[in-house]
UniProtKB/TrEMBL annotation, chain A:
It comes from the Archaea. This is Extracellular solute-binding protein family 1. Residues 47-60 have a biased composition (Acidic residues). Residues 37-71 are annotated as: Disordered. InterPro entries: SBP. It holds the Pfam family SBP_bac_8. Transmembrane segments: none annotated.
TrEMBL record, chain B:
Keywords: Cell membrane, Membrane, Transmembrane, Transmembrane helix, Transport. It holds the Pfam family BPD_transp_1. This is Sugar ABC transporter permease. It comes from Haloferax mucosum ATCC BAA-1512. One of its GO terms (biological process) is transmembrane transport. Residues 106-317 form the ABC transmembrane type-1 domain. Residues 1-21 are annotated as: Disordered. It is found in: Cell membrane.
Length: 459, 329
């Protein structure tokens, strides 16, 4: 520094340069910015409709011997069951009779958040993948304007007859099909550790109402040292999900449907929150706030906890644990009060407009809905096919029972936390309410009001 | 002087090759002389060296910031269409200031910024003074204190999560041994932000220590000796003689730490594997990503980003000005 001080000339030069930078920089920025705008507008205008249709037609007439090429597929199944299932799906596709190749790009982490962010960036920059995994239903709304239609795929493959009835509505937006379902998880599940429940003397089959469940949790807490209900609260999604199950179990299908359509009964929403507060205040573990799903499942496997409410992906963790068998070590009960219901979830592949490989992507979409794909994927994923005509022989006993319940269910209410019941912005809002009002201390009044306010009136 | 010498050689070169030489040279000269006069000698001649990186920076950093500012003035959401720049207003900013979630995140960000920086500087200074006292195994201790900084947030977040576990975390064991607690560090909204600050302080105090240690080593031994000859106690010597000389080190360490605090996103994200930190620990960075990617409110997310940028500028700006005043820039 002393050297600099001795040479005022150099010093001054550098100082002048510093002054000059902002001025010149600003000019360049404005130019760059204006250029950016222009680009954005032109591409999007093209992408809005015309371009997509043109490309589609072009390829259809050109493709003499069926489409070929490589479809890029994004999904979020990176760990355990998911990765295995995705691998099985990829193998099944390579064995299928087509000239199309698939390039699977898994993007894991943060639930589906990282996948969603990557998809958002790519759709935003007009560089969509051939297809990506996501939830259908109102969740499709967030992709409004950038999804193409796969009506022809549904027609050519008779998916309308083959798929479960609910799939037909939930895969459409603005009158066209936008996606094809691959599998379905069930949300109204109560899993338990058989030996803990037996030690407490609880007869699980008799739990057919939320109040019976509360009594059973109380029995577990007095009769054993185990945690009555393990709850992973490091995220809010488990809480929203449990609230939905309690809401269904306590107030029934119609009240739940009224709520998601924005006509929720204040008393019903409140009573569900009251029961949830009872569970959270008395029957979950003290360290729930630092538990994630894996740790929570581990509590059941280790016999540290009696019950867990989860989607049936949790069954995958139990199945993979050593010496931990269905009906001997762990058991399943439809969430109390939701007997005869199957809370519906779909894993689907969405079809972006302005598709880089329009025809090849449609071959992929058609494959996703085929029996081969659904069997290959779901038996490992721990979910069940969305087709009603698939043989369940290759599936384990637990999934066979699930498929039976699925087929015989009186009602299949859509899951609240996984895109089928409300739009994603509403879902985020519900989770904000849970985070601020219901992660302890539990404010039933504010949470009730927050939930009722969050859901827009659909009717 | 330099210019005329350059001119002469240029003329002889240009003249021998082509006739265009004098014309171009005349144009360049007309351009370069006033520029050099305005910005100092060699401004023009040196431009091939600094101009390309300068333009790249301008476009990709400052251009992106300006673009982000433009987006924050639109109402852009979702994927359909592109931002409409014809109708710019500050609606997103008024929305932000009336959004209780935003206000909470902003307050948490400020608390994190101030408390984390202050605590880290104090701990770093104490460590540096202890190590500077000529202790045994000095290098070993220095490495031990610096090590946490080399770990990624993903790692540190996970093991602080374990340490903060209510039932078997070491944090509760420790406070339990002096008869306190147990506390629910992550689940209690009054505690969680402080728990995060403590974890970040643990990770970065080693950095503050290194900066202070360099500062301490630059202070001549005579200052210590003079203070001791004058009969100052050790505490008094540090407080009145040594610490005032560490002003430069404090400022540069504080700036780096504050910028780290604004970027605590990684730590919170890893803590819960998601964009929604535990209630009570939401900061602007997480709120921004949630708005942009979970809700696709691009313009609202951009507005939060600009506010965050203004905060960072408020931290960095005075430092740059201070350095500029002292002639370091």
């Amino acid at each position: 520094m002393s050297e600099l001080d001795n040479e005022p000339d150099i010093d001054r030069t550098r100082r002048h340069l510093v002054k000059a930078i902002p001025a010149t920089g600003l000019a360049v920025m404005v130019a760059g910015c204006a250029g950016g705008n222009g680009d954005g507008e032109t591409t999007t205008d093209g992408g809005d409709g015309d371009m997509t249709d043109d490309t589609d037609d072009g390829e259809m007439t050109d493709g003499g011997g069926g489409p070929s090429g490589t479809v890029e597929v994004l999904h979020g199944w990176t760990g355990g069951d998911g990765a295995r299932a995705a691998g099985a799906l990829e193998t099944a596709f390579s064995e299928a009779d087509t000239d199309v190749e698939v390039e699977m790009n898994p993007i894991g982490g943060g639930g589906n958040q990282n996948l969603d962010a990557v998809v958002a960036n790519r759709l935003q920059s007009n560089d969509p993948p051939g297809s990506f995994a996501n939830w259908p239903g109102p969740n499709l709304r967030r992709y409004e304007g950038v999804l193409g239609n796969v009506d022809d795929v549904w027609d050519e493959n008779d998916f309308q007859d083959a798929m479960v009835e609910e799939a037909i509505d939930l895969h459409q937006m603005n009158g066209s099909f936008r996606a094809v379902p691959l599998g379905s998880h069930r949300l109204n599940c109560l899993f338990y550790n058989v030996s803990v429940v037996e030690e407490a003397g609880v007869d699980v089959e008799s739990l057919t109402s939320v109040s019976a469940l509360l009594d059973a949790l109380d029995t577990v807490s007095t009769e054993t040292d185990a945690i009555p209900m393990t709850q992973a609260m490091s995220g809010t999604w488990t809480i929203t999900q449990l609230w939905a199950a309690v809401m269904l179990g306590e107030n029934g299908y119609q009240s739940y449907m009224d709520f998601i359509q924005g006509n929720g009964s204040e008393g019903d929403v409140r009573s569900a929150f009251e029961s949830l507060a009872t569970i959270h205040e008395n029957y979950i573990s003290d360290d729930a706030s630092s538990l994630d799903l894996t740790a929570s499942n581990q509590n059941i496997i280790n016999g540290n906890a009696a019950f867990i409410h989860q989607g049936n992906w949790a069954a995958g963790a139990f199945r993979n644990a050593e010496n931990f068998d269905y009906n001997e070590d762990w058991g399943f009960k439809t969430f109390p009060g939701t007997e005869g219901m199957y809370t519906l979830h779909f894993d689907s592949f969405l079809y972006p407009a302005d598709n880089p490989t329009p025809e090849a992507s449609k071959v992929w979409e058609a494959f996703v809905g085929s029996p081969e794909a659904q069997i290959a994927f779901n038996q490992f994923k721990g979910s069940i096919p969305t087709r009603t005509d698939v043989s369940m022989d290759q599936f384990g006993p637990y999934l066979q029972e699930t498929a039976e319940d699925f087929a015989n269910a009186e009602n299949r209410p859509p899951t609240l936390q996984h895109g089928l019941a409300v739009e994603s912005s509403v879902m985020t809002q519900l989770n904000e309410v849970i985070s601020t009002e219901f992660t302890g201390p539990y404010n039933v009044d504010a949470a009730t009001q927050g939930f009722l306010d969050a859901v827009p009136n659909m009717s | 002087m330099t210019e005329s010498r350059g001119d002469r050689s240029a003329r002889s070169d240009g003249g021998s090759v082509t006739e265009e030489g004098p014309v171009r040279e005349g144009f360049l000269r007309r351009l370069s002389v006033p520029l050099d006069r305005r910005f100092g000698s060699d401004f023009f001649e040196s431009s091939p060296f600094w101009l390309p990186p300068f333009l790249l920076m301008a476009l990709f950093v400052y251009g992106a910031i300006i673009w982000n500012l433009m987006i924050s003035l639109t109402d852009y959401t979702g994927f359909a269409g592109s931002p409409d720049y014809s109708n710019l207003d500050f609606e997103m900013y008024t929305q932000a200031f009336s959004d209780p979630g935003f206000r909470e995140a902003a307050i948490n960000t400020l608390i994190l910024l101030v408390a984390f920086t202050a605590a880290t500087l104090i701990v770093g200074l104490l460590l540096a003074i202890l190590i500077d006292r000529g202790i045994r195994f000095e290098n070993t201790f220095r490495v031990i204190y610096l090590l946490p900084m080399s770990l990624s947030f993903v790692v540190t977040a996970q093991f602080w999560l374990w340490m903060y576990n209510f039932n078997n975390g070491i944090a509760n064991r420790l406070v339990g041994s002096i008869g306190l607690g147990p506390y629910d560090y992550i689940g209690n909204q009054a505690l969680v932000l402080w728990a995060v600050i403590f974890a970040l302080m643990w990770q970065f105090s080693g950095y503050a220590m290194v900066v202070y240690l360099a500062g301490l080593r630059a202070i001549p031994t005579e200052h210590y000796e003079a203070a001791q000859v004058d009969g100052a106690s050790t505490v008094r010597m540090y407080w009145r003689v040594i610490i005032p000389q560490l002003k430069g080190a404090t400022i540069s360490a504080a700036v780096v730490l504050m910028v780290f605090a604004l970027k605590a996103f990684d730590f919170l994200y890893s803590l819960v594997s998601g964009y929604r930190p535990p209630n009570g620990a939401d900061i602007l960075a997480t709120k921004m990503v949630r708005e942009a990617y979970a809700n696709l409110n691009w313009s609202y997310g951009a507005a939060i980003a600009i506010i965050l940028f203004a905060l960072a500028l408020a931290v960095i700006g005075p430092y740059l000005y201070y350095e500029y005043q002292r002639g370091y820039l």
